[in-house]
Amino acid sequence: MAWNPVRGINRRIEQWVTTRVQRLPGPVAIRRQRIYILPTRQGVVFGVMTFALLLGSMNYSNSLGFALTFLLAGLGLVCMHHTHGNLVNLRISARGSTPVFAGETLRFVVAIHNPSRRPRHVIGTGLRQGEWSDHWVDVPAGADVATGLDVPAPRRGRIPAPRFAVSTRFPLGLFYAWTWLELDQSGIAYPKPLGASLPATLEGDEGADHSSQQTGNDDFAGVRDYHRGDALSAIHWKVTARTGELVVKQFAQARRDEIVLHFDRLTAPDPEQRLSQLARWVLDATERGLSWSLVLPDQRVPAGSGPDHCARCLTALALFQSSSAVAS
């Protein structure tokens, strides 16, 4: 790999700056003293060419050459001033993240507020200094614009937002200005759903069973002969009048099935494999509109249904055996 002096300087500056970055809840205002600026590769070439033009003008005492040299030098200085000022006083705040499954990319939403009366152009966010990603935006005067940070989520759990750079190369790309920030926010990575789908018949199945619950006796199921001791209110008088025999109404007791998903009843030796299987079943139960509860060794999620209950159970699986509490 070819030696790049600009990259080496940037790396040394990055190591020095990162020791001064504090994790803050936000919003964080970018002060002038926290902005760093270096010439880009195009800026270095521009400077060398301007210096060569100056030497040529001095050698040949060419007035037109001097005028062109000073014009280009002034253009470079104005460009440096605008690049630096494009970041000053911007306010950066965290806007949360949407949970993903392990192996996917978690995106932290970051809002950029421009309190000034002039727009800011080509503001980018990236995890590495010098990285020029696709996440760049223009921020109108007095407005908020949301952008994002894409962070890999290789495994389940709570993922803290990393340190990131807010940068710009506006207007001509001759200089690169940036500052480091670290916002106090985190995201959730669910276990990757794996394994067999939720069986249609659960009696005796591994890790999941039915928990029946009596809910009442309102469903009419037919009639039977009257027996001594039956309540008079239970007699079906219309049928009795038609047949001449005493009969009473019968009601079927309604059943509501609640699926119970047990971590301990799974036989897979790897706990992560069990969590992935339970995540698969939670998604299947949500898709079928079932009611289910989740039983883990350290907690129990009561029965429920719907997308909110699904998210609560997946969060419990994501944070299993971690120090973080289940998000309510």
Automatic annotation (TrEMBL):
Residue intervals of the DUF58 domain: 223-267
Transmembrane segments: 40-58
Superkingdom of this protein's organism: Bacteria
A Pfam family the protein falls into: DUF58
InterPro entries: DUF58
PANTHER family: SLR1927 PROTEIN, SLR1927 PROTEIN-RELATED
Protein name, per record: DUF58 domain-containing protein
Organism, as annotated: Abyssibacter profundi
Upper taxonomic lineage: Bacteria, Pseudomonadati, Pseudomonadota, Gammaproteobacteria, Chromatiales
